[in-house]
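Here is the promised in-class demo. Please do not try to memorize the tokens; focus on the logic of going from shape to residues.
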């Protein structure tokens, strides 16, 4: 069956009205109430708390915990994620994670990726939710693990009343507590919801259009430190799409990823465990593979005549680096295989394990140095 056109796919009126009315309310009511009555410091504080709680529930809960199973969480933490994730009004965990897993499986496929960036900014940002496209049809066959969780089953079954209760009840309760019901409903209710929506939607749209691709160019996902600031670390999207089962998105210590810091910190309290991390070697391998790919492309664009000696020198250096790279990969595979084999033999002495781990770290160090050399070569090619 052919994909229906944008004009003929049936409109999802519930979504269209919800997005339109909440945006209109935020644009009109926030400045009007602010100018005529003013927002208290409590209004702004609760707005910030709810906004961050919604964002973290989506990034740490819906995304990294349930969609990708990058770590395990205590039931108390999962309950908190569910409360504030429901309040974020981005559908149930079942629907959100099923669609997201499909996105990763068929990324950029215009017929199967629910929010393919190849269909344009508007479609990937919000348009995919406004019409009933075949690519967006719910199919929960890819979430058998989530269906076993009674908390998630309860949320999915009663999602609408729970979402209404969270979005009206929590701001209303805060308004009663701080004696400003309307200010709290407008700021911590409406503006918080609109902001939370579009910040999340930026990951499906802008993070596939604006930024760099240091790890892979097999898909449109980009790393963007600016987006990372407003999306709680989700802006390092190129890394995420190649290493989706890593609990980190900003893998470098200096990269802004508060979701990563939250998950790691809660491990100290026993609320998270079994955090999955991509081995350093695999990250370096991906970075170097992209460096070689781009270096070869730049060499191919250089004129055949001209500074022939200089070009041949660069070509020879890159070829030498590539041979070293392949040798390191082969050595890593050999040492890793030996290490895994020895782990299975209980009779092995402990010092053998330490020696093999040291060999693996030495290979990682060599690749790190090679990555720096390749960056210098890239600068010369540029």
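The designed amino acids, position by position:
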């Amino acid at each position: 069956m052919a994909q229906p056109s944008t004009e003929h796919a049936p409109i999802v009126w519930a979504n269209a009205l919800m997005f339109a009315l909440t945006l209109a309310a935020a644009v009109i009511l926030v400045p009007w109430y602010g100018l005529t009555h003013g927002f208290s410091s409590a209004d702004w504080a609760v707005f910030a708390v709810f906004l961050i709680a919604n964002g973290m529930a989506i990034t740490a809960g819906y995304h990294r915990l349930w969609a990708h199973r990058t770590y395990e969480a205590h039931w108390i933490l999962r309950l908190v994620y569910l409360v504030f994730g429901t309040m974020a009004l981005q559908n149930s965990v079942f629907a959100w994670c099923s669609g997201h897993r499909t996105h990763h499986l068929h990324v950029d496929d215009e017929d199967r990726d629910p929010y393919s960036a190849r269909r344009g900014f508007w479609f990937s940002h919000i348009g995919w939710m406004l019409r009933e496209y075949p690519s967006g049809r719910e199919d929960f066959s890819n979430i058998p693990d989530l269906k076993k969780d009674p908390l998630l089953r309860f949320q999915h079954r009663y999602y609408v009343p729970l979402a209404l209760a969270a979005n009206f009840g929590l701001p209303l309760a805060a308004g009663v507590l701080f004696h400003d019901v309307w200010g709290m409903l407008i700021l911590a209710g409406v503006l918080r919801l609109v902001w939370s929506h579009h910040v999340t939607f930026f990951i499906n749209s802008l993070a596939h259009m604006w930024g760099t691709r240091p790890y892979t160019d097999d898909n449109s996902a980009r790393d963007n430190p600016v987006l990372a600031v407003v999306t709680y670390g989700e802006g390092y999207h190129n890394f995420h799409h190649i290493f989706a089962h890593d609990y980190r998105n900003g893998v470098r210590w200096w990269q802004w990823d508060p979701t990563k810091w939250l998950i790691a910190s809660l491990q100290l309290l026993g609320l998270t465990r079994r955090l999955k991390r991509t081995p350093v070697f695999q990250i370096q391998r991906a970075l170097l593979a992209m460096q070689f790919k781009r270096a070869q492309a730049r060499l191919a664009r250089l004129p055949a005549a001209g500074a022939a000696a200089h070009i041949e020198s660069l070509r020879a250096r890159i070829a030498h680096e590539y041979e070293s790279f392949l040798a390191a990969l082969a050595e890593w595979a050999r040492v890793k295989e030996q290490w895994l084999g020895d782990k299975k033999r209980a009779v092995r002495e402990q010092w053998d394990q330490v020696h093999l781990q040291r060999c693996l770290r030495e290979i990682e160090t060599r690749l790190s140095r090679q990555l720096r050399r390749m960056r210098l070569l890239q600068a010369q090619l540029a």
